[in-house]
Amino acid sequence: MTPPDTARLRLSEFAAAVGLPASLRYSRVAAQRWVLEPFTGWCRRPVDVFALTGRLHLANGRFMPVGWSGTGDGLARLQGGALRQRLVQVARGAGMAQPTVSCDGPAVLASQPAALIAHEAIGHFAEGAADPRIDLRHRLGCRLGADDLEVLDDPTCGAAARYDVDDDGIVATGATRILQNGVLVRQLHGRASAAAAGELPTANARSSQITLPPIPRMSNLIVSPGTNSFEELVDGVGSGVIIHHLSHGFSRGLHVEARIMLGEVVAAGRATGRFFTGGRVEERVDVLTGCLARARESELNPNALCGKHGQILYDVGTLAPAMRLSRLRIVA
């Protein structure tokens, strides 16, 4: 485990580098999973995850939530790199931003908000029901994305989640293609939900602790990249907005919502530097059917915390490129 003095030192260095008053908490869980393997007997699998949570106090009196998590101890993230630099840029922009104005029009989602929307709109919609008596097979065949959008779930790719056996004891053999040509073609299952649906389990049974039952959950959601640069995405918007950072995403039924931490007005295909903050994105789960173009590079959302049915996991990853949408509904 990380020595407390080391964690406090890294948190202090992180807060000093950000340059804003901060309330932060660092957590780390290290455990062992024992798996009974055919022929070899019991094998030990280490489980090591971390979470950095809290908030920054912005110049305009607002607060910006901080949520980083994933496998390992995460201390390297605190010490520097592109993630910390981007957090500083978002916090400074949000600190001088104007209040959000309601609108409904073209938008570019930077990689972080694109990952959050994909997680809520596609990932959760693809999960089997926690209660195997509830049949969600009617969701198969639903269009959730543009014609060329493909999404995988892969616990073996070594992103935020990393396991070779799920909490039902099912071996993870690779990626599960859940979205093909924009259409939901496969659901994510544990043993119970798979049996109820007449399907094979996909090694997606996950539990936050040994006293709680495993339920179908995402591992690493991977959204297919496109061919554009970020500047080309913005140029294609004309007049609209860039969403640089979202927080507090959730989905309920066909509804998806997230808070806007930082947005920017686009005019004549150029970012104007006129930032806004507050308000929220309110959309349906099929919002990505309006995805007209995607960036050629994907990024992992640094926030891998995910709560469902009272179970919070630190390692639910989403890897996504920036996206240009034909429209996005923003509510002040």
UniProtKB/TrEMBL annotation:
Do you know which SUPFAM superfamilies this protein is assigned to? Answer: Putative modulator of DNA gyrase, PmbA/TldD
Task: From the UniProt record, give one GO term of the biological process aspect.
Answer: proteolysis
A matching Pfam family: PmbA_TldD_3rd
Task: Report the protein name in the record.
Answer: Metalloprotease TldD/E C-terminal domain-containing protein
Q: Which UniProt keywords apply?
A: Plasmid
Q: Name one GO molecular function term.
A: metallopeptidase activity
| Entries under InterPro entries matching the protein | Metalloprtase-TldD/E_C, Peptidase_U62_metallo, TldD/PmbA_sf
This entry carries the following GO cellular component terms, namely:
cytosol
Any idea where the Metalloprotease TldD/E C-terminal domain is?
A: 106-249
Task: Describe the family membership recorded for this protein in Swiss-Prot or TrEMBL.
Answer: Belongs to the peptidase U62 family.
